[in-house]
Amino acid sequence: MMAGGTMRPAYAGGGAILAGVGLARFAYVPLFPAMVAAGWVDGAEAGLLGAGNFAGYLIGVLAGRHLAARIGVPRAMDAGMGLAVLAFAACAVQGGVLWLLAWRALAGTAGGVLMALAGPSVQASVPPARRGAASGIVMTGVGTGVIAGGLAVPLLLAGGLPAAWLGLAAATALIWALARGNWPDPPALPPEVASQAAPRAGRLLAAYALSGAGMVAPMVYLSDLAVRGRGLPIEAGSAVWIGFGLGALLGTLLGGRLAQRAGGRQALLVWMGVQVAALAAALVPAWPALVLAGPLSGFAGVGATAVTLVAAREVAGAQAGVIWVRATAAYAVAQVGFAFALAALFGATGDSHAAVFGVGLALSLAALAVAWIGRKG
Asked: Is it the case that residue 192 has pLDDT exceeding 50?
């Protein structure tokens, strides 16, 4: 089979991640200041909606493999995409904070299901020599979605917040229609393999979880930092978020390939170092520092997913899907806890961006330390 045909599941998986994570999760970031400005929510409530999305993501990650075991990977991915479309459409209704929180949580659930399934299923569906490249292709969906959302949201907001939400719903439905014919459909593991206990991989999981906790600040508050924290126009907030997406694209493309060559745990150390630099740049009070903070945050925070996916295959072989779900769940648990904590801190400190990004820097330093300890085993 030609390489393009071999890699079709990877491109379809990338489309799923684009819609379910890049849009359903992260298109909210440039919408954050617009939601506050329109009076739909205040700053603390907007942070709460971000935290609710993280909580739903955790539920989706934990449910994804079980759902696929019952109805198969392709149908489970269809379910995730359909839920993402519905959640976007429902957020076009100004139903109050609880209404929006529920649907943002369900959007997170959709993204969690797709993240749990797309990467491991694609890895099991392509030749071993292409797995590093496939990992990068799948995870570029995050960066592509971030860029698409950053470009589309300011244009869609010209028609008001409901038009923005409905436009994102339509975009997700289109991606679903284009990708679903090439969903990965890996064979079930033989019983003797499925029954084997997967390795613990504690240091890998800890470094990835701490990375996720540190990334809550830029993943929720980066555009708001530019607009309300640095006094820039809302278009600048979207531009900073597009920079995040460009960094994410580069980080995932390089991450999969470098991890395949140098080793996933060694590569993770590099990505954690970049994350520390990104959070430090966000704390510089001069607005030009955001030109670095955005791309570096995306490079490290999203690129780490491609690196960790390859590392999971190194550690666990055919059981990589188990390690990946554990890693993604650990990442999600850390993000849920710190998302709610940072929302409370943000409100208690009078919407202090320095407070939330300072916590993010401390957590990123901890992730770097654990990655250093676990770089060889």
From this structure: no
Least Cα distance to 360 among 223, 183, 211 occurs for: 211
Tokens for 342?
């940072």
Say which amino acid occupies 262: A
Tokens representing residue 345 in the block: 């801190």
Most confident of 27-31, 56-60, 200-204, 262-266: 56-60
CA gap 302, 317 in Å, rounded: 23
First to last CA, the chain: 36
Give the contacts of 5 (CB within 8 A, at least 6 positions apart): none
pLDDT in the model for residue 71: 94
pLDDT, tens digit, 9 for 90 and up, residues 21-48: 999 988 888 888 889 889 999 888 988 8
**Cα gap 211→227, rounded to integer Å:** 25
- Which one is predicted more confidently, 311 or 206? 206
Q: 92 to each of 35, 87, 89, 105, 247, how far by Cα in Å?
A: 11, 9, 6, 15, 29
Query: What is the DSSP code string of 245-263?
Result: HHHHHHHHHHHHHHHHHH-
Place of tokens 């399934």: 117
